[in-house]
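Fold this sequence, please.
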Amino acid sequence: MDTKQQHFVIDEVPTYQQESGPRYQIRERVIIDAIRNVAGESCPSNLEVLDIGAGRGILSLKLARMGFNLTLLDKDKDVLEEAANSFSNLGLVAEFEHRDIFEYYPKRRFDIVLMSEILEHINDVSALLYVRQNVINDGGCLIVTVPSSGEWKELPPNPIGHLRLYDKRLLRERLTSTGYFIEEMQYFGGVLLSLYSLRTKGISSGEISTRLFSIYEYFAPFTARIFLLDSLVFGKLQIFTNNGLIAVAKAYALSARELLAQTKP
């Protein structure tokens, strides 16, 4: 591998760091808050949630504990089996679908469809967003998170090896052009996460992330609370790089039917 490019490869960062570090924990909190806003504080237990690219099911487990009915979709059979074992060990029930994201055609629709850190891996984002409209219930919504670098006239070079980074303009264009109505869109992250995410030239992402993660983990849960508090205060600002972006959207057709139903006597 070219030394010049080595520190740009996200796969050098161990999976457990990606799933328990501050970047993941902040993103998880933002997603859960968005789902609570959609479902209401009571979080009805009959709501159906589809987690696309669910991986080992860490977020899905928390949603199942909140009372949602979960379906986990992933093309990686091994990680899906890990998720199924985790659910079983905790006495929780869910459905597990080992399929490609473009080849999943369920017989029912879902109230919430979650795509967390998916779009940046997909070549044809528009096709994916079009195809997935058919799994959303009337009145249901799509929740998307993507890596972002804040507001720039031009998006900067991608520092972590994804196909693209997003700002609000680009994500809004992708969603509206494929027939979605955006109900909410905001950045998340903060000062501390930006500092934590810095890459030093000549040091691989795996090496520097391991050092920082060791410090973060040693002082947890204190460090986790500090990062979350920093995210609440500064995360929505547009001036920090290495943040994320979340959008809550409905398909235009679904929104129109919902509005028509409300106007009927």
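The beta strands are 48-52, 69-74, 95-98, 110-116, 136-148, 180-188, 243-251. The chain has one domain: 3-43+109-263.
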